[in-house]
Amino acid sequence: MHNTEHSSAPLDEPEVEQELATANLLVEDVSIDGMCGVY
Amino acid sequence: MTAHDDSIWDPAAKWGLHPMVAVRPEAFGALVYHYDTRRLSFLKDPRLASVVNELDEGESVNQVLDRAGLSLADRQAFNRALEMLSQTQMIVRR
Amino acid sequence: MAPESTAPRLIDHFERGLQAPICLTWELTYGCNLSCVHCLSSSGRRDPRELTTDEAKAVIDEMNRLQVFYVNIGGGEPTIRPDFWELVEYAVAQGIGVKFSTNGLQMTAAHAQRIKESGYIDVQISLDGATPEINDPIRGQGTFDGAIRAMETLQAAGVAGFKISVVVTRTNVGQLDAFKAIADRYDAQLRLTRLRPSGRGAEVWNELHLTSTDQRDLYAWLLAHGEEVLTGDSFFHLSALGQSLPGLNLCGAGRVVCLIDPVGDVYACPFTIHESFKAGSVREAGGFTQVWRSSDLFLELREPQSAGICTKCSEFDACRGGCMAAKFFTGLPLDGPDPECVMGHGEALLASIDHTQTPRTDVDHSRGSSRRMLPLSVVSRACDESPVAGKAMAL
User: Fold this and answer.
1) For B43, which residue in chain C has the nearest alpha carbon?
2) Pairwise CA distance, residues C30 & C200, whole Å
3) Contacts of B27 in chain C (CB under 8 A)
4) Is C221 exposed, middle or buried (0-12, 13-18, 19+ CB in 10 A)?
5) Which chains have 3 or more CB–CB distances shorter than 8 Å to chain A?
6) Which of C251, C290, C291, C370 could form a disulfide with C366 if both were Cys (CB 3.0 to 4.6 A apart)?
7) Which of A25, A26, A35 sits opposite C23 (nearest CB)?
8) Residue whose C-alpha is closest to residue B33's, from C5, C307, C99, C236
9) CB of A38 within 8 A of CB of C237?
10) Which letter does DSSP use for residue C228 in this model?
11) Taking CB atoms and an 8 Å limit, are B10 and A6 in contact across chains?
12) Do C16 and B45 count as a contact with CB atoms less than 8 A apart?
């Protein structure tokens, strides 16, 4: 059911959203200039 | 045309940390810093940090994820997280 | 951890403490060849107790053990230390990135070349006006030209992406587009940061800090420029105006950042050089590591902070109560609004403060008379804060 090719066929929308949401729980990018306390 | 596009995520292939990337373990997981791009990423699960550190040991991503003993939902999330790291060159194809 | 559960936010993770700071600021000297009116570190004269070259190298060794990725070096003017480049090379040789802040007056082609050659060295040139008319009353006569010369030297050496760092004030907030144009001309990245009432900043705060209109203009401008303009997350208090600005949107002091000062004292951040925010000294037995991981001050800062009266405010989640340094040095309680709270709660509270009792630091290395007044003509905007009446205006 899941297409193993790289994003050529759409997955069900709620599944993609869930995947992205949970992946965002795992990895977060922050600009190194994005924290206060440096001049 | 190259045989494959190095930037396309393929968990069946071998990937590893970019040589200019440093990983520092933390209680919540790890901090990942790329000295060339000056990007900083937070890995918010210690298991994901372990997986990232194990990538260089000659196996494909799928093999490393298989050994991690993850639930299906976690495995999909970890796979997507690794893809996100590849998009910022934190990990690269071997 | 089940992915379906609500994971802690990133800022919740920091409350458990980090192994090492993410951004560490290290002021190498209190000496400076300038006397900027708003200097957060009240710099000017070198301190005879400054860390020696060997002590500084020991600090770098500790950073290496702690796996610190990079260090932000400043001062005073760090390049006036004769061992500046020796220390930079020492850090870089151990894989520690160096980002240094300078007024650029002594930047030579050889220095620019060295920066160009190293992937580990980044530089930031300070500038506080897009024209000499606005810049020089703050930084000193000839400093605008000096900064531009440094930028030209860097550009000639092929150094792209260096930073131009501006402290936004009432007198320069109308020049944001002009600052961007300077950055674009030199292939540099513009960085706008917040004025705090810290160091000599306390003396010029009333004249130079932004009005509420200025803040709204700045916020709109920052949103329009997205991530192409950096801010060091110093305007997170403005996030209460609407959509959050890029960054962690929280005070990093003692949590993700801290300061090592020229005599080895460790403070919560560069804007809190005051006994109340001193966590310890790198000269103590456990070195920097013990101060970072175990000092009473830092452990206390890492506890969830009381929002105090801000808990009643609908915007607290966005602004997180604002800047600790801004509150402290204007005499406001830390568990309450920022003096520049966009909802006006800070202004209201300031009216009841006894301004003669606001905290002042005794760490002051200012040369001669530290008070350099702005000529009235430079203050171009109508002031809706406390008037300057009663203060002697003199250069």
Assistant:
1) C10
2) 13
3) 13, 16-17, 19
4) middle
5) B, C
6) C370
7) A35
8) C99
9) no
10) G
11) yes
12) no
* Cβ–Cβ contact A14 with C under 8 A: no
Q: Helices marked H in B37-92 — which ranges?
A: 46-54, 61-67, 72-87
Residues of C in contact with B71 (CB under 8 A): 2
How many other C-beta atoms lie within 10 A of the C-beta of residue B44?
23
Tokens of C298: 């830092």
Please name which of C87, C83, C82, C32 lies closest in space to residue C57, comparing C-alpha atoms: C87
Q: Which residue has the tokens 């990538």?
A: B55
How far apart (Å, rounded) are the C-alpha atoms in residues C162 and C155? 9
| Cα C342–Cα C345–Cα C351 angle in degrees, nearest 5 | 120
Length, in residues, of chain A = 39
CB-CB: which of C4, C7, C119 is closest to B35?
A: C119
Nearest residue to C213 via CA among C201, C204, C221 = C221
Chains contacting B with at least 3 CB pairs below 8 Å? A, C
What residue has token string 């992937």?
A: C119
Measured CA to CA, the distance from residue B89 to residue C239 in angstroms comes to 30
Nearest to C101 among A30, A37, A39 (CB): A39
Nearest-by-CA chain C residue for A27: C10
Measure the CA–CA gap between C20 and B2, rounded to whole angstroms. Answer: 42
- Could you list the pLDDT tens digit for every one of the 395 residues in chain C? 344 445 567 777 776 689 999 989 999 999 999 999 999 999 999 999 999 999 999 999 999 999 999 999 999 999 999 999 999 999 999 999 999 999 999 999 999 999 999 999 999 999 999 999 999 999 999 999 999 999 999 999 999 999 999 999 999 999 999 999 999 999 999 999 999 999 999 999 999 999 999 999 999 999 999 889 999 999 999 999 999 998 888 899 999 999 999 999 999 999 999 999 999 999 999 999 999 999 999 999 998 888 898 988 999 988 989 999 999 999 999 999 999 999 999 999 999 888 888 999 999 999 985 444 444 333 333 333 333 433 333 33
Q: How far is CA C257 from CA C85, C227, C253, C267, in A?
A: 24, 21, 5, 10
3-state helix, strand, coil in chain B (%, to 5): 35, 25, 40
Secondary structure (DSSP) of C140-209: -TTHHHHHHHHHHHHHHTT--S-EEEEEE-TTTGGGHHHHHHHHHHTT-EEEEEE--S-TTHHHHHHHHS
Which pair of tokens denotes residue C324? 């600790």
Q: What angle do CA C250, C195, C392 make, to 5 degrees?
A: 150
